[in-house]
Automatic annotation (TrEMBL):
Entries under Pfam families matching the protein: F-box-like (PF12937)
Segments forming a coiled coil: none
Protein name (record): F-box domain-containing protein
Organism: Eleusine coracana subsp. coracana
Residues of the F-box domain: 6-47
Amino acid sequence: MYLQSMPVDIQEHILLQLDSPICLVCASTTCKLWRRIIAGTVFLKRFRSLHKPPVVGYYHQSDQSPASVRSFKPSPQVTTAIASRYDSLDHFLPLAWLFTGTVKDSRGSLLLVEIATMKEDTLRQHLYVVEPLTQQSKAIAVYKATTPAIPCEIQAFLLDGAKPGEIGMSNFRVVCLSKNGTVAGIITQDGPIREVKTGNDHGKYMGYLGSAAGSMYWYTKPRTVFAFDKTTAEFSSSSLPDTDDFVQPTISTKFAVTAGRDGQARIVFLAGDTLKIFARPKPRSGDDWVLEKSVQQPSAVTLGVPRPQRFTFGRSVPLC
């Protein structure tokens, strides 16, 4: 009787606190309502986002000097033998990895590694997809800097392969953005780069905000948001409200992207001591963002919205 009188959203919140898929299956046998809640697509997406799989460990490195501080920290539950596989990239990657290599992204059991080399006074950036556990690597692209000795600001990210939810050395995609953000490239394990227009015709730098609700998000001044749909591999653009909030020089450090309880993306922005949450009333291409909620925070406890990293720092590698 008590459960029947409890609002459904409260019951959903309780079920989301379960820390095991096994417990979730057991809970689904309790009653028809809980079975219907747990079987819902939105609920399952939220559950997966809250309860990440175990991780092998974390790669840590500095953008300024990757080789000198690059390290791998295994999780306590990982055996020494498995951890050593992830800490031994030096043994099967090109020698240049020791001096210029950086881990740009990770997904599943794979890493996306960037290695820079100099040839005829021109900096070249090479991308490798790496599987540390099997010590396999595959070169997938080479980029050339427009100015000698100055690195390109190529952004690159790992995605699942053609089959959603599956990724491996024979099934992956890589998304790369050009320095000026006007063109993106989609690379698969066995195909050439397929160019995709981002819609950023002005060539303004696109700051990566994060990933949520099946899409990746970038921001350009003064208030444009670009979204990349991971399923369709297409970009769309939308706008934030026309206010004075988005004119600060360090605007990109105050954004974060997350998913709401309805499974749709939200943009969280820190304006002074106030967190502003923006939503799209109709989550379709071209719909602009509106202010959904403002949350006032005492300045003494305001820590700021975590800055999304363009380069990997503390990226987790799930157990495979």
